[in-house]
Write a structure and sequence with these properties.
Strand content: 15-25%
Bound molecules: adenosine-5'-triphosphate, (R)-mevalonate
CATH topology of the largest domain: Ribosomal Protein S5, domain 2
Radius of gyration: 24 Å
CATH architecture of the largest domain: 2-Layer Sandwich
Helix content: 25-40%
Length: 544
Amino acid sequence: MSSEDSPVDATDAMPARTLPSPPVNAAGVLGLHPPLLRKQSSPMMPPFMVSAPGKVIVYGEHAVVHGKAAIAAAISLRSYLHVSFLSKSHRTVTLLFPDIQMEHTWSLDHLPWAAFSAPGKKKYYYDLVTSLDPDLLDALGSHIDAVSPKAPESIRKIHHASARSFLYLFLSLASRKTAPCTYTLRSTIPIGAGLGSSASISVCISAALLLQIRALSGPHQDQPATECELQIERINRWAFVGEMCIHGNPSGVDNTVSAGGKAVLFQRKDYNRPPVVTPLHSFPELPLLLVNTRQSRSTALEVAKVATLRSAHPALTENILHAIGQVTESAHELLTSKKFDPTSPIALKHLGDLITINHGLLVSLGVSHPKLERIRELIDHTGIGWTKLTGAGGGGCAITILKPQPTTVTNGHGNGTHHDSSSDESDSSSEADCSASIISTSTKLKHKILDNLEAKLENEGFDKFETTLAGDGVGVLWPAVLHNGNEEEGGEEIDSEKFLKAEGTEGVERLVGVASTRKKRTEIEVREGWKFWRPWEGGLPQIY
Ligand SMILES: Nc1ncnc2c1ncn2[C@@H]1O[C@H](COP(=O)(O)OP(=O)(O)OP(=O)(O)O)[C@@H](O)[C@H]1O
Ligand SMILES: C[C@@](O)(CCO)CC(=O)[O-]
């Protein structure tokens, strides 16, 4: 296959659909330069969307970079990427990334295609790329420097990371003949909070480009599990390349969970080989409290801190990393044992203890932060659950696995003395005999403690998120049309302008068809028209 003919031009790849209303470019919303204000989308090519979830690392962050296993699970916060096609006369590719106040347009004809298709450099959609090519990064240099040249250095860094991730994948997978496009990205995942926002955007970019070059089949009904796995693997390999452009030295756990969804045991001992990924179907849907310190930090920097500690104190650091690996193994052993009962307080306490130990070890590695310790202090004081930092640390988020109904006695302020029901066995067995009224009293008490805690966290400037663990991975809405419950001809097209105008998480979710029935502490999601690769369903219908 020659370098020029491998990727199929999106113009040829996408079947035409009866005239969708041409999307107005988002220029008005972001204040872009005047030429982009005209309606200019290709009338023959409908826009489409992809989306991918964030993740939490439940056990094993940092140690996973050094070859140990980690357990991670997808969450219901997601990134959404909208792809719209321009008429062929516009020889441009545009990124509209409003979450980071970034927009940029490159001329398709001036991008360094030659460098990416030179002999020995060209990569194909099915290749496994395990490191970035310094020559290709050099070739991208001036095109990345052209992004937000006047922005402060801290902002430029963020813009350049996203631009690098996009361009490296775009030039690797697309071709000179690629249809002019606008990529608009919105995410409900807080950035730099340990929830895998970069991985989820890398998965979205990878999936969108692979769809454009027709390198993916499905997702569709009756797709066998092995075929689903192959598609996810293909997306994940290129998402890892995108992650390398942002992080430098990622383990690949974030993009793996974001691409495949649910929960996995992940281990990469040899960076020249694909990681070993074991799906954890038995992973319970644990009630999870997620608190964001709102302290920004860089994953790359936190990973580098551990590498520095390892150079300075090799034996000690190795012992800590090894102990973290043992924490993950212990959790994995329990989760996969035949006797595992996710409703048992003893099993939950085992998982909770491991959370506490894991956090202590991360503190020893120097990747906690006073704000993370403050959150832990506030939550520990209530006795409501087991807390650890998640992701890179240095700020970012803390997760708390909540204990089952605590028989708590408050001191009237909601944070006083309590009796920890899951810390002693006799109590937990007697709990099973509780009458309905006692359970409901206990539930009310738990909610009261949570409400008080939420108020305290809010007072101190922390954000609390409600999320569901172990959801779907990458999804596709093609074309970007929703029927909103009725079968009206045509449905409602989501164009780039509407997408940019959607307000906040709720606005975005409503527009893209994620109807969530949010109750106090539960969430049921319906995603209209979206399709997902779900190997665990082994070919069962996958459409919501
Ligand atoms: N919504 C978004 N729009 C554009 N770029 C984004 C978005 N979310 C993340 N990014 C890119 O990802 C980078 C954040 O990556 P970082 O690893 O620091 O945080 P994270 O992925 O949220 O956390 P972690 O890797 O610890 O889970 C940003 O600097 C930006 O380049
Ligand atoms: C800190 C780390 O282990 C998790 C980041 O979410 C880094 C990685 O695995 O790439």
